[in-house]
Amino acid sequence: MPVPEPVTYGGWQSERSGFMGNLSGPGFALVAASTVIGLIPLYQRSWSATIVSLPLALLLLALAFGRVLGLSADQWIILAVRHQIAVATKKNLFLSGAFAPRTRTGEQPMDLPGVLARLRILNAPDGLGGELGVVHDPVDSTYTAIARIGFPGLALIDTDKQNTRVGAWAAFLRSQCKEDGAITRIAVHQRSLPDDGTELRSWTDRHITSDAPPAAIQALDELMVGAGPVATIRETYLSLTFSSARARLAVRAAGGGQIGAAAVLVREIHAMQGALSSAGLQVEEMLTPRKVAQAIRTAYDPESQLMLAARNNAAQESTWEGAPPGLDPAVAGPAAAETSWGVYRHDGAWTVSYQVRGLPQSEVYATFLQPLLRPRRNARRSLSLVYEPIGPVKARQELAREKAKRDAARQLRSKTGRTESEDERRESMTARAQDVARAAGHGVLRLSCLLAVTVMDEDELEIACAELQADASAAGLEIRRVWGAQDAGFAAAALPLGHGLPDRRVGV
User: Fold this and answer.
1) Is the pTM higher than 0.85?
2) Which tens digit of pLDDT belongs to each residue from 403-421?
3) Coil, helix or strand for 315?
4) What three-state secondary structure class fits 401?
5) Which residues, including other chains, have CB under 8 Å from residue 393's CB and lie 6 or more apart?
6) Is 377 helix (H, G, I), strand (E, B) or coil?
7) Which residues are CB-contacts of 401 (< 8 A; sequence separation ≥ 6)?
């Protein structure tokens, strides 16, 4: 019987989101201004005007076409000016707590910084007699439910099962690429957290028999004392974002408003259970409002993870008579936070967020992201994969637009006598293969990948960043620090809320 070969994956394609070619709107304006300035000496027929105009025109062209770390000079200037304005107006600082304004009903809203300030955590019935925490964004009219999931992994299973699970996950994503689908974003978030061994000790205490040898109990206690504080645990979340604007009729039929939208979201979640099970994903629990707040809080304050884990275990064992498991959504955010140019400081931790700017050019196996998830004693890592399903009609339009941009660039190169590079040729072949697959019934998704590394000691930050960059390079990824927007990068990379993809394309 032939042994099945592991399937390889590739064909990722970067969006060409420039205003014209690879130029953003400001970049195109700089080129136009450079052209006008360069023509001034010709109209004036003056050598003195040439001495002034030519260097200025070259400077504008350098600002438009020069690139540093993937960004043009004009984009760096915009980022720097925006950051300096935030620093001058102290909008890069955040203080929470009793100073948060209360609503008219006297309730204190959830206090979160930056782009998360508009979010609200709603309490909705899960359809099974329990409650479900739904993160509501009133500006975008979206509702996000978060599930904590378990999975058996891919590295230690045989090739046939590995291919089957990855294929089932691809089928699940493809099923969401439907016209006017209500699910607008699907996000997978995994983080590593410190584990003091509380849960392991609690389980051991419940399962030790009364006639166990004292020597064995002592040896087990010593083992847990030594291994617990240096252990790490992984938490994996799957978040589904529902747009009430795309499903107005269904929301209206379910009662309208927030209640109707939450009911439709719950119905969508129940319909996905079978597809998720086929991919080997087990929904361990749908997060309640307090569990959603806990997931947010432990990202801002990693030290609170140990306390909350101990309290949750005590609540499950009926030895705790205080607050129920989780955390009050009103105190989900940090006590204080500060955004600097390249680092985000929150409570007693420092975080640096990265965006994946380039996926592997060659074919890779399904486990190629494993180097990013290696446990580290001095740092906590977070990985977020955000998918946006695209309907068939919009996918055809988007791919046709991408093809038109590439054809125009190819014609411009041929007119100027520039030969096509091998990278550009492969990019065109990938785009054509993607369009052929789309025409054959495959789904098209936008994908954003973000990483975050968090330390409790600022002196270890650069070492942790260097280790993450080395592991990203081993995985074949090209990553870039989210300069000038570390608070927004943290919200997308370190929190399981499904952020990370813009609603509209902008120049990058």
Assistant:
1) no
2) 777 777 777 767 766 676 7
3) helix
4) helix
5) 179
6) coil
7) none
